[in-house]
C-alpha cells in the first residue's frame, strides 16, 4: 500500500540521516583555539610562561603584602589600608596561590621538569635546570609566607590526587636544596644534541654559567634562612660575583609587559598604597632616596618604573649574606658591608662620590646596622627583608597603633609572622590545611592567626 | 361594528406580521475590527444557521417567534445576542481568554487541545506583552506566569534580563529556558557580562513583542522532552502573528512614547565635605573620603546632590506597522518596527529596527509551504558599570557632596558641556582629578557601541500523506553578527586608555523532520502519534582585539593603540536526536501521553555520546468521566506526570589543552597583567581545567501533580501544580586545590533538588454586557537545594568577587551568598573584641540566601463599554541581595546614615554581643555580655577610629546583606477604544488609545537601588549589587490604529 510504502521510505530516510549524523560528532568537540596537551613538545613555548608568572607575581602580591608587613609600603585606602591594619584575610593571597603560583607558573615548571625526565624524556637538561631553579625559588617564596605547603604530592591532578598533603617546612627547605643541586648538575653538563634555551629565556638568555651562579646564591639564601652558616658559606663561594651576574626579571615599557609595582601604583589602584614612613625615614639621608622615592612616591622609581627590572637575587644580597655570616660569627664585616652597599648603589647609578661619602659611615657595623643596610639595599624584595626580620629581629619595626587583633592570638605586639592559608585551600583542601595548621601551632581556638612563628624561625 | 372589524383586521394584520420571518443582517468582527469570515450564526432553539462571508457579513431569515442569535467561532467566546426590534445586528467576537483558547502550542510547534494536556503549561497573549511597554521580551513576562522568575540586570537601555523557569538546576550550565519562535529554537545568549565592563543584552531583545500572537511557557520535562536537552530548563514557545486565508488585508499601525525616570536610589548625604578627620581637603589633594567638615559651617563650600545632577528623564518611542491577510491559497503577514530607547543616563541608548514577513502557500491540496524571515538590526550605546574605576555608578556614588560634577549644569546639558568634566589642559575635572571618573566623563568617553545584525528564518513544508498521516519538515536558521567597539579614553596621569574590537559571529542551524498520525479509533479512543528527527548545530566565533595605551585622546580606532593583543575563540557543538510521542485519548476524558528521545551530543566522550530519556503523563477529566453536573463545579481535571531530560557536557571537556599564556596572579592588576607575546616571545600554558574522558550525561527527573478546576460555569478557575525534580550527575567544573596543578576539574557530581508549587487563580468576577472585571493571580514558590556535590568538594563558585560571592554549597539553597562574617560563639552571638568592636572571622561563611520564598502576581482588569483599566501587582517575599555599593559608600562617608551617626548620635554606642572573659574548667572560653562603649567616629583620633573603616574596604559582607522583598505596582494601564459610531465611514476600523504606567510604585526594605538587579546579568550567580545601574519607572501613551 502506498501509505505503508511511504512510511517505510520515510523511516529509512530517518534512519539513514540518523546513522550518518551520529558518527562524526567528536571532531566538533576539539577546541580549535587551543593545543591538545599531548601535542605540546616545544619547551621554548612553555618556559616563557613560567618565567612571566614568576616575574609578575614576585612584583605583585608577593612584593606588596609582605612589603606592607615589613613597612616598605603603607596602605592608604581600600584593601591596602585594611592590610596595613593587619586585617589580612584568607582571600588576600588567594590569587597568588591559585593563579600565580601553583595553578600558574609552578605547573608550567613541573611540566618542563617532567618532560625532561623519565621515559620519553626530551633531551633538554638546561631547560630542566632552569625550571628547577625557578621551582626552588617558588617554593621558597611560598613556604616563607605560609609555612608547610604541598609539594611532594603536588601537580598530580591528572592522576586523581586533588587534595595533596602538606609537606613540612623542613621537607620543603630540603627539597629546595635538592632542586638547586640537581639544577647545578644539569647546567654543568654538555650533552650532544640537547635542546638549549636562547632568547625564549629572558633573564640570562639561557647562559648556563650565570644560572649556576644564581643557583648557588639561592642555596646560600635558603641555608642562611635555616640558620646554617656553614652550608651557606660553602654555597657563597660559587655564587654571583658581580652586578653583571645579578638575576633580574626584565619588563618592558608597554601596558601588558610592564613592571607590576608600576602598574599597580600608577593606574590600576593609584592612591591606595604609598611608601611607608619607616622606609621614607631610613631613606632620608641616603643617596638612593631620589631613585627609590621620586617626589615622595614609590612609583616611577628605579625599581618601579614601567620597564624597571625586579630582583630574583642580586650581587648586593649575596654580599650582604657574606657580611652577615661574618658578623654573626663575631668578625668585622666592615669591608663586606661597604662592598655590598657599593654593589647596590653602583647598580642603581649613584654617583661615585656619594657612594664613598656614604660608606665612610660604615665601621665595624653591629648586626642591627648591617641588617638596616641590607633592608635598604634589597628593596623592593619584600620577602627577603621579611625573612631577615624574622630571623634577626632587624631592622626594628613597630606595628601601627590602629592594628586590629582580629587575626592575632592575643594582642598586636609585633608585625605578622606569616599569612594565613589562602581561601581556596580552606575551601578545597581543608583537611590537609587544618592538619598542617595544627601541627605548626597556627591555631588560636579554631581561628588561624597571623602571629604564629614559622617552624624555621623558632 | 365597523370598529370591531377594524380591530380584528389590525389584529390579524399584526399577527400576520408577527408570523412572518424577518431578515436580520450585520457584520461580525474580531477585536481588531476585522471582519471575521466563517463565523457560525445560528438561531437559538433551531438548527437553522448561516456562515459569515469573507468580509464578516451575514444575512439570516429569523422566524418571528425566535429572538436570539448565537454566534460561534473556534477560539472565540460564543455570543448570544437578543435581536429585539433590530434588523441590523453587528457583533464583535472576543477571544476566549478564560479558557485561554482551547488550542495551545506545545513542543515542536504542534497545536494541542488544552483539555488533552497532562502537564503544566501557561499562556500569555501577545497583547499582554506589548502592553507592558518593555522593549525586552523577557521583561514583558515579568510577574505574569507562575513558576517564571525574571530579573532584569538594570534599567539601562538594552540591559539583559535573566529568566528562570522553576529556579536553577544547573550549576555551571545554562539555566535559561529554550526560546522557540514558530517551532524554531533561537539563540537567547548573552555574551559577556562580568563584574565590570558594560551591560550587554540577552539576544531575545531582538524579537519585537509586536510580532507575537501568543506565548506559552512549558515548564517541566514532560512538556519539553521533545525538544531535548536544550529545553531542560523549560521552553518559551512563541507564536508570531500570521495572515489568514480569505481575509482582506488588515493594516495595523501602532505608536507609543514613554518617559522614564530612575525609580529608586540610595540615600546620600549633603552635609559633610571631602576630607578626613573633620577637615576639608579638596580635589587637588586627591582625597577619596568624605569625612571632612560640615558644609554649612564653611561659607566656601556648597553641598550638591550628585544623583539629581546626573540622571535625566529617558524617552522611549516604539513605532510599528503591519499588514496581514490572505487569498484563497496564500496567507501573509509582514511587519516593520522601529524602537528607540534613550536611558536615564545621558547618552545611553538602544535602538532596534525589525522587519518580518511570513508567507504560507498551499502549493497543492496536500502540500503547504511557508517561509518566514525576520531581519533585525539592533544596538546601542552602552556605558561602563559595576566594579570599574571607569564606570558610572562607582564614580557617581563615591563623589563627595562638596563637589559639583556638573559644574553648574545638570543632566544632558552638563554631559554636553565639556567644561563639566575636562579642564583646558586635557586633565579630568572630577573630585579626585581622574582617579575615579566623573560620570559626565564616562558618558562621553568610556562607552561601548554595538551593532547586531540578525536574521532568523525558516522554511517549512507540510505534506498530507493521507487524512491521518502528515509529514512536516522545518529548517531554521538563526544567525547574527555582533560588532562591539569599546572605548576607554586616556585619563591624563591615571589611565593610558583602551580600545576593544569585539566581533562575535553566531550561527545556529536547526532541522526538524517529523511524521504525525492522528486517528479516532472507534467512538471511544483517539490516537495521536509522532516520530521525528532533529539536527542542531551551533557555532560562535569571537574575535577580540584589545589595544592598550592610546596615543591620541578621543580617537577610537585600533590604530591608536601601541600595545595590541588579539584572540579568537570558537565554540561549536552538534546534537542529533530522534524522538517519538504517543497520545491516547479515551472518550475525551482520559488521556495518556508517552514520549521518548535519544540524543547524541558532540560534547560527550567518543563512544559514549548517546543518551536516552522518556516521559509519561496522565490526564483525567473527572467531571466528564463521572458526568458531574453542577452549576458550581463545572470542570475538573487531574494531571500526573513523570519525565526525564538529559543534559550534555560543557564544550571541549573531554581532554586537556594548552592555551596561550597569560601571566596572571593578582586581581588588582587586571588590565596590565602580562600578556603574550612578552619581550618578544610567545608562550602557551596548560589550561587550568582538568578534562574528563569518563563524562556521563546529566539527568533530571521530574514528578508533577496538578489539577485544573473550574467553577461557576468556568467563571472561576484554579490551576495548581506541585512538582519535585532532581538533577543528578551534574557535570560541573569543580574548583579544586591549585596545588594539584589544575584549578578546576570537570566531573559528574552533584545532585540538586527542586521542589515547588505553582498556582493560577483566574476569575471573571463581574460580567455584564457593559461592564466586566477579571482577576488573575499567579503564585510561585520553589526551593532549589544542593543535595550533594562531588566527593571532597562542598563549595563551587558561581559569580562575584573573592570577598563576596554567590555559590553552590552542599546542603544549602542554590546560589547562597558567601563572604566575610563576624566571629560568633557556638550559640551564634557576635564576639566583641577588647576595643569594643565586633571581631571579624578569619574564615568566610554563608551570609545570605538570594532565593525568594515566594512570588505572586495579581492582576485586575476592568472594562466598561470602550474603556479598559488594569493593574498588575508584583509581590516577592524573601530573597537577600548583597548591597556591596552600600559597604563601599559607607567606607567613603557618603551615605546619609554615616552623616547621621558620625556626630553626637554616634558616640557611646554599645555593640550587641559578648566579650571573652576567661576559660572555664573544661578549657572552653566563657563570655559575658558586652558593655564597652565606643564612638563610631572620633575626629580627634582620626580615621583609624572610624567604625566604617574598621573592617577594611567595603566592610564585612555580612553587614551588607539585606532583605530584598518587595511589593511593586508593575503595570497600570487605562485604555479607550473609540466607538465605531465616531469612526463612521472613515478609513479606520479601530482606534485605541492607552495610557500605561510601568513600575510606578515600589515598597521594599532594601536601602539601595531597586533590588531587582543583578551584577552578573544572566549568569547563574545572583543576588549581588555592586555599583549596578538603577532601574526605572515609566509613563507612556500609545495609539493603535487598524484599517
Could you characterize the architecture of this molecule?
The complex is a heterodimer of chains A (458) and B (1043). By secondary structure, chain A is mainly alpha-helical. Chain A has 19 helices and seven strands. Chain A has helices spanning 2-23, 47-59, 61-69, 78-84, 94-115, 125-146, 169-188, 208-225, 229-236, 260-268, 277-282, 289-292, 315-328, 334-348, 352-360, 367-378, 382-392, 423-428, 430-439; strands at 35-36, 73-75, 247-249, 273-275, 310-313, 443-444, 447-448. In chain A, the strands form three sheets. Chain A has a two-stranded antiparallel ribbon with strand order 2-4. In chain A, strands 3-5 form a two-stranded antiparallel sheet. In chain A, strand 6 (443-444) and strand 7 (447-448) form a beta hairpin. The radius of gyration of chain A is 26 Å and the shape is globular. Chain A starts with a helix and ends in a 10-residue tail after the last strand. With 1043 residues, chain B is mainly β. Chain B is built from twelve helices and 57 strands. The longest helix of chain B is centred in the first third of the chain and has 18 residues, at 2-19. Chain B starts with a helix and ends with a strand. Mean pLDDT of chain B is 86; it is low at 12-18 and 97-101. The interface between A and B is large, with 114 and 106 residues.
